[in-house]
Design a protein that fits this description.
Strand order of the largest sheet: 1-2
Helix content: 25-40%
Order of helices and strands: HEE
Strand content: 15-25%
Largest sheet: 2 strands, antiparallel
Mean pLDDT: 76
Shape: elongated
Structural class: alpha+beta
Low-confidence stretches: none
């Protein structure tokens, strides 16, 4: 016969195993869903993307030497290829959604 503390330890270990299995299963399901969504979205080509600079201004004694404001428009259901920026970026979405690929 198991003592009360042994039964509690077994129950706790079982609960942790179940929670871990659920977390891994959920993570796998979300990963597969994201992979499926990424495959379904065509990349926007250079001719379909509209980009316009609103303004650019130098900054005095700052880590980043300029501030630029641009508008970028992608056709519905498209995305840009994975890329990076060598400066800080802030996105303000007027319509639709943005997803960072960091």
């Amino acid at each position: 016969m198991l003592s009360l503390s042994e039964r509690r330890s077994i129950a706790l270990a079982l609960a942790i195993d179940i929670a871990l299995a659920l977390a891994i299963g959920t993570g796998l399901a979300l990963g597969l869903a994201n992979a499926r969504d990424a495959k379904e979205k065509p990349e926007a080509d250079e001719h379909s993307v509209r980009r316009a600079e609103v303004f650019s201004h130098p900054l005095p004694k700052a880590a980043y030497r300029n501030v630029s404001v641009i508008t970028v428009e992608y056709p519905p259901g498209t995305e840009s290829p994975k890329h990076g920026h060598d400066v800080a970026v802030f996105a303000h979405v007027l319509q639709g959604a943005v997803e960072s690929q960091h």
